[in-house]
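Thread: "does anyone have the structure for this chain?"

Original post by V.I.:
We have the sequence but no experimental structure in hand. Need at least a predicted one for the grant figures.
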Amino acid sequence: MPRPFVFNVMDGKRDRLVQIKVQLLVRGYENETLAKKHIPLLEGTLVRVFGVASVAQLRNPEGKDQIREQALIELNKETKKLEGKELIHTVLFTGFVLQ
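Reply from O.Q.:
Generated one for you, tokens below.
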């Protein structure tokens, strides 16, 4: 993805700042081209998935894996609607900061 996702998550009465750098793994040049064409949709989908994450999920490896899996499911659901096939093979977090 071209830029990191930065958002706030409530932790009790306090806001926590989260920054996640994401890379999407696709297989094949055709799928790469189609994925690049739909970057705004993919970004919106990731914002939606990240927006429902809790601080507890973001703090532990199992929770991060759940978020990654949910992101993959939602991304492929959207690409299947538009292109008739699942384009994304893997969602990778290449940078992760929780303050």
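V.I.: this helps a lot. The chain has four helices and three strands.
O.Q.: and Residues 61-83 form the longest helix (23 residues).
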